[in-house]
Amino acid sequence: MTEIPNDRRYTKDHEWVREQDDGILAIGITDHAQAALGDLVFVELPVVEDAIGSGAVCAVVESVKAASDVYSPLAGTITEANTALADAPELVNSDPYGEGWLFRLRPDSPTEIEELLDNEDYARLLTELDD
Amino acid sequence: MPFIPHTPSDTVDMLRAIGAKTIDELFDEIPEELQCAGLEAVPEALSELEIGRLMRERAAQDEVGLNFLGAGAYEHHIPAAVWELTTRGEFYSAYTPYQAEASQGTLQVIYEYQTMMASLTGLEVSNASLYDGASALAEAVLMGVRVNQRSRSRRILLPESLHPHYRAVVRTITASQGISVTELPYDRETGRSDLQALDCYAEEDLTALVIAQPNVFGVLEDVDALADWALDHGVLAIGVVNPMAMGLLKPPGDWGHEGVSIACGEGQPLGVPLSSGGPYFGFLTCREALVRQLPGRLVGRTLDVDGKPGFTLTLQAREQHIRRSRATSNICTNQGLMVTASTIFMSLLGPEGLKRVATRCQARAAALAEAAVTVPGVEIAFPEPRFHEVALRLPVPASRVLGGMRESGVLGGVHLKPWYPELGDTILACATETKTDRDIEAYALALQAAIESTGCAA
User: Fold this and answer.
1) Is B231 in the same domain as B102?
2) Does A86 touch chain B if contact means CB atoms closer than 8 Å?
3) Which residue among A78, B9, B133, B153 is least crowded, i.e. fewest CB within 10 A of its CB?
4) How far is it, in rounded angstroms, from Cα B238 to Cα B253?
5) Any domain includes B19
6) With contacts defined as CB-CB under 8 Å, which chain B residues touch A64?
C-alpha cells in the first residue's frame, strides 16, 4: 500500500499539492507515480517567476527509458524550483512527499486548491486503477 | 528482380485477413479529389542497362574543370583508404540499426566520431550527426531557444555575413515555431560583422547570437568580441564553423572568456566528396550541461554485465520514440555513412595532419589572392585575416568573366551579386590544399584572358 499523507491535496495525474502557512503551494509527484516511473535520472524544472496556467506542462521527470510531463494543478506564479534535484533526482524516489518536492507556486486563486482530490479520494482513485 | 517482398498472392492473403477487398479500399477515407490517380510526370521504368547509360550521361554533365569554387562545399584530397573502408559491407548502411547495441562496431565508430567532433570544437558533447550544415544550425537555434530560459523573446540574431543558404534554412525551419530572426549587418570595408551595429541590440532581449567562422566571404570574424558580447548580454552564443579551419583556428569552445554553448557546421570537408550537392552531413556539439536539449542520437561508452567495455545509445528520453511530440527533434542517423567516412578521414590525418591541411589551405588561398591582383583592375574586396577563400572585385561584369573562365576549363568562383547586390561584380574564389602553383598560375591567366575578352575597359 502506497503512502498517502492527509496534509495535502492530489490530482488525477498523480501529483500532490500542499499549502504552506504562507499560502504558497508546494507541488510534487506521489509515491505511486514515482514507483511507476522507476529510478529517476533527471528532473526538468520550471523557471522561477514564470506564470503558469492550470494544466500547463511545467516540469518533466525522466527515468532511464521514459519521460513524463508534470502539469501545474493550479494557475499561478512559480516562486521556487527544487534545485537539489539537479544533482539528486533520486530524492523524488526516496522521499516523494518531502525532499523530493518539485516546485513551489503562488496560486492566482487561493481557494482553487479545494477543488482537488483529498487523500481519501486519491486512495479511491488508486484502488480503481488497480481493478 | 522485385524489390517489394510481397507477392500478389501475399497481398491477396493479407487483404482477406483484414477483410478488405482491394488495396484501394484501405484508402477510401481519403476524399477522391485528394487522391492522385496517376503520376504523369514520372516516366516509364527503364531497364538497368538503360538507367546505367542515362546516369553516366548525367554524371558527365558535371564539369571536372580546375575548380576554385567554395562557398560552403569544398574540394579536399580524400585518402583512398577512406571510402575503401567506408564502403565495406560491415559499414555500408546509413542508419544506426535496430537493436543498435547488437552492432557494436557501428556504435564504436559513432562514439569515436563524437569524441573527435567534441575535441575539434572545444566542447564536451557531440551528437551522432544531422542532415547538413544548414539544418544543423537550425537545430542549434531551436536548441538555443530551449536552453536560454532567461530570454523571453525567441529572437535570434544571424549575421548577414553567414551563408545565405544557412539563413534561409534557419528561417524556414524556425518560422513556424514562433522564432523571429534579425540580421546583423556586416561592415562593407572589412567583410566582418559590424560590432558597432551589435551595440544597437544591447538593451533588447535576444535569445541567441550566431557567429560564423570563417564567414561566407572566407573572412575571419572577431569571434572573441562577439562571444563576449553575447556573454555580457545574457545571449546564448552559437558558433557555426568550418571543421577543416578548426585545425588552425581557436575552437568555438574557447572563444572569448567562456566560449560558446553550442557549435555546429557542415562536415563535408572531412572526407566527403563534392557530388552534385550531396549527400553531406551536419555536426552539432555543446556543453555537457545542455546535453538533454541536444537533438539526435548519442552513443555512450559503458560496461556490460561482465564488466567489459561496450557502446550503447544513451539519453534516449530526449528522442521521439520516447518523448513523442515533445522530443528535441526527429533527427536520427540518416547521414551515418558520411560520418563513417569523416571518422576514418580524421583518424588518418590526426590533429597534426588536419593542422597541416588547414595551414596549406590558408597559404594556397593567400597565393591565389596574390596572383589574382596581378591582373589589372582586380582588387581584393576584404582585408585579411581569411581562411581559404577570397572575395575578388572585378573591373567588368562578373558573370561574363566567370563564363569566359569556364570555357577555358577553370571554375573561377561564385558570383556574390545575387546574394549581396551591394557588392556588385565581386566573386568568391577558393583554393584548398589541392591547388598547386601551376593551378594558381592557370587561374590568373584565365581570369586575365576572360576580363580582356569582355572588351570592357578596365
Assistant:
1) yes
2) no
3) B9
4) 10
5) no
6) 317
Partners of residue B158 on adjacent β-strands: B183
Domain count, chain B: 2
User: What backbone phi and psi angles, to 5 degrees, belong to B230?
Assistant: -60, -45
C-alpha span between B302 and B300 (Å, rounded) = 6
| CB count in 10 Å sphere of residue B79 | 14
Is residue B458 one of the residues assigned to a domain? Answer: no
d(CA B91, CA B342) in angstroms, rounded, equals 13
Q: How confident is the model at residue B94 (pLDDT cuts 50, 70, 90)?
A: low
B326/A69 CB distance under 8 A: yes
B29-74: pLDDT as tens digits: 999 888 887 888 888 889 999 999 999 999 888 877 899 999 999 9
3-state secondary structure (DSSP) of residue B155: strand
Tell if the CB–CB gap between B317 and A65 is shorter than 8 Å.
Answer: yes
CB contact (8 A) between residue A66 and residue B316 = no
Which chain A residues have a beta carbon less than 8 Å from that of B323?
67
Please tell me whether the interface predicted TM-score (ipTM) of this complex is above 0.90. Answer: no
Residue B368 shares a structural domain with residue B335: no
pLDDT of amino acid B68: 97
Residue B97 has pLDDT above 80, yes or no: no
AA letter at B232: D
Which among B146, B147, B149 is the top mutation candidate for probing chain A, defined by the most A β-carbons within 10 Å of its own β-carbon?
B149
- The boundaries of the domain holding residue B389 are 66-73+352-453
Q: How confident is the model at residue B254 (pLDDT cuts 50, 70, 90)?
A: very high
Give the span between the Cα atoms of B121 and B352, in whole angstroms: 16
A-B interface: how many C-beta pairs under 8 angstroms? 22
- DSSP reduced 3-state for B209: strand
Q: Write down the H helix ranges in B19-76.
A: 48-60
A46 touches B: beta carbon within 8 Å: no
Q: Does residue B241 contact residue B213 with C-beta atoms inside 8 Å?
A: yes
pTM: 0.88
Q: Is the minimum CB–CB distance between A48 and chain B shorter than 8 Å?
A: no
**Cβ–Cβ of B292/A42 closer than 8 Å?**
yes
pLDDT band at B458 (very low <50, low <70, confident <90, very high): very low
Q: A9-113 adopts what CATH topology?
A: OB fold (Dihydrolipoamide Acetyltransferase, E2P) (2.40.50)
Residue B81 is predicted with a pLDDT of: 97
Residue B220 neighbours by CB under 8 Å, 6+ apart: B192, B213, B214, B249, B385, B386, B387
The residue among B344, B366, B381 that closes a domain is B344
The amino acid occupying position B7 is T
User: Within this chain, do residues B239 and B379 fall inside the same structural domain, yes or no?
Assistant: no
Distance (Å) of CA B62 to CA B53, B67, B274, B276, B354: 15, 12, 10, 7, 28
* Closest of A103, A90, A79 to residue A26, by C-alpha: A103
Which of left, alpha, beta for B150 (phi over 0: left; psi -120 to 50: alpha)? alpha
Angstrom distance (rounded) from CA A58 to CA A49: 12
pLDDT means over runs of 10, chain A (131 residues): 85 94 94 93 90 90 86 94 94 96 94 90 90 72
Interchain contact, A44 vs B326, CB within 8 Å = no
- Chain B hits for A57, CB-CB cut-off 8 Å, are 326
